[in-house]
Amino acid sequence: MAKHVVQTDAAPAAVGPYSQAIATDGGKTVYLSGQIGLEPATGELVSENFEGQVRQAFANMQAVIEAAGGSLASIVKLTLYLTDISKFASANAIMADIIPQPFPARSTIGVASLPKGAQFEVEAIIVI
Which NCBIfam families did the record assign (predicted)? Predict the structure, then answer.
């Protein structure tokens, strides 16, 4: 699958590690449900630490993507949910460390709460 960055100066530039939009050349589209920082073996949050939860949520997402036959490079759209939007920069840094370029399109939403008291959730759309 080839991903092509869609970028225009007629819209604001990305303020973090993401693309304005991503176009693809065909393939199978897979819509992933949100993942929080649960330890797969226990079903409990990996820690109370925000960064630990973010890394675990991305690891969980990666496992689902690989089960679908894709890789992190297959991601065309991410949605991040944070219970504390002031931790936006921290989530950006972790995402930039994990997700390969070109970065997918992305939305980030501040929410009041998440399941199991999680501080972070990520969902994705991939094309394989």
Answer: Rid family detoxifying hydrolase (TIGR00004)
